[in-house]
Design goal:
There is one protein chain. This protein has 3 domains: 244 residues, Zn peptidases (Aminopeptidase, 3-Layer(aba) Sandwich), CATH 3.40.630.10; 94 residues, 3-Layer(bba) Sandwich (Glucose Oxidase, domain 1), CATH 3.50.30; 75 residues. It contains 12 helices and 18 strands. Strands 1-10-12-11-13-16-14-15 form an 8-stranded mixed beta sheet, sandwiched between helices. Strands 5-4-9-6 form a 4-stranded antiparallel beta sheet. A two-stranded antiparallel sheet has the order 2-3. A hairpin with a 4-residue loop joins strand 4 and strand 5. Helix 4 crosses helix 9. The protein starts with 5 loop residues before the first helix and ends with a strand.
């Protein structure tokens, strides 16, 4: 199977004005639909109530600058659109230096870059400049312009669904917003695309799979609020982002912490043989998993990223939310690793079942050529008797057994498959 072309995809969509309701976001979503023609696009109009939230209007930006009192241009959005806080309200005319400085944003953690800032849900305006230039704005008066407007629009969510053998489903998702950002958002989208393309071609999943492309938070809220009937079918959610830069993988566990999805993710990370971090719910980075695993929904939701621990006060990665978050910091091999890891995670979930013994007592392993020679696999030899007890426990799945007995999942799966072939166990799937 030909690998997904991460570089071509990211180069196509990253430098767009992908604000949460915008033409740039729509253009990026339409490109995804070109690659996944079966994808549905759900539309939610501005002003629509979705649970306690309201869909915001569409934001348009025509021009913006800061000029000195002598007319010298100090900041110009034509140099970089991130100079303007996303969803800024319009302003025009002379203002005092004290007032301007209240609306200047910098990013000390990346002092030479322009920060990405937004004000989606509160009326405000602002400019963003490199931190090293902050002291240049000491005059008493400036001329400022933000020529922006708001209009009725539609928030859009991409929904690509692959039916499985059961209507119980797993959600794999990322956010498509964050204008002019590559690693934060688009790298996750690219990984979701690679996973979607894989299962679209193989069509052999036990669980149904739903791939969602959303504006952060509000997109998940809009989708779930209008599809509450799906919540009881959702077994778990995997949120993907920040997966292309050169750092180790980070698993953020679900709020439950010990769900089948949590255990399967750790199994796959161990099999990956690369260093990784593990954080509690909302300890690594907080995104749409907080909606799916949030109050009143409570779907076990994990995230995979390469972010450091935002919840502990660490910066996710050096270029985070700045103009330096470009494709230059993304390595396609890192994205391919994340894609294969996620595919492996879905496969592990698909292969999971509850093994039920069809015979009583300890099984005569040698009779069926199932005894494990300690000289070949001492670990499994020591634990094979313990497995018998789990075969009579209706609540334990392969993933549970592998984690609790610390047996590599593939080894346990292959061994118990022989039990099934000899008619010693039956498989109970969710």
């Amino acid at each position: 199977m030909i690998p997904f072309d991460h570089k071509a995809f990211i180069d196509k969509v990253w430098y767009q004005a992908r604000d949460i309701v915008s033409d740039g976001y729509d253009q990026a979503l339409n490109h995804i639909k070109e690659l996944l023609p079966e994808m549905k696009i759900h539309k939610y109009p501005s002003g629509m109530e979705t649970w306690s939230w309201i869909i915001p209007p569409k934001w348009n930006l025509k021009n913006a600058y800061i000029k000195s009192s002598e007319g010298k241009i100090l900041v110009d959005m034509q140099d970089h659109p991130l100079h303007v806080v996303s969803y800024s309200t319009p302003i025009s005319g002379k203002i005092s230096g004290d007032e301007l400085r209240k609306h200047l944003h910098t990013r000390p953690q990346c002092p030479k870059a322009i920060p990405f800032e937004f004000s989606y849900y509160q009326k405000n305006w602002g400019f963003c400049v490199p931190h090293v230039e902050k002291d240049n704005f000491q005059d008493d008066e400036y001329n400022v312009l933000i020529d922006s407007s708001f209009e009725e629009g539609e928030l859009k969510v991409g929904d690509f669904y692959i039916p499985g053998k059961t209507d119980q489903e797993y959600v794999i998702m990322s956010h498509l917003c964050h204008p002019y950002q590559a690693e934060d958002g688009i790298s996750g989208i690219s990984t979701v695309m690679a996973v979607a393309q894989h299962f679209r071609k193989t069509q052999n999943s036990h669980y149904s799979l739903r791939f969602l492309f959303v504006p952060e938070s509000i997109g998940s809220i809009a989708f779930l609020s209008q599809n509450e009937h799906l919540i009881e079918k959702m077994q778990g959610c995997i949120f993907l982002e920040m997966l292309g830069h050169d750092d180790q993988l980070s698993l953020q566990k679900s709020r439950q912490g010990d769900s089948v999805l949590d255990k399967a993710a750790e199994i796959c990370l161990e099999e990956n043989k690369s260093p990784y971090r593990v954080g509690k719910f909302c300890e690594v980075i907080v995104n749409d998993e907080k909606i799916f695993n949030g109050p009143g929904v409570n779907i076990p939701s994990i995230s995979l990223s390469r972010s450091k621990f935002w919840g502990r006060g660490e910066w996710p990665f050096p270029q985070y939310h700045t103009s330096f978050d470009t494709p230059d910091i993304i390595c396609p091999k890192r994205l391919e690793e994340a894609s294969q890891l996620t595919i492996g995670l879905v496969n592990t979930l698909n292969e999971n079942y509850n093994p039920q013994a069809k015979v009583k007592g300890p099984i005569f392993l040698s009779r069926y050529d199932l005894w494990v020679d300690w000289r070949i696999d001492r670990e499994l030899n020591q634990k094979q008797e313990e497995v018998f007890y789990y075969l009579h426990d209706n609540n334990k799945t392969l993933i549970d057994i592998a984690c609790e007995l610390q047996i590599p999942f593939p080894i346990l799966k292959d061994w118990l498959e022989k039990f099934y072939e000899h008619g010693l166990i039956e498989k109970k799937f969710n």
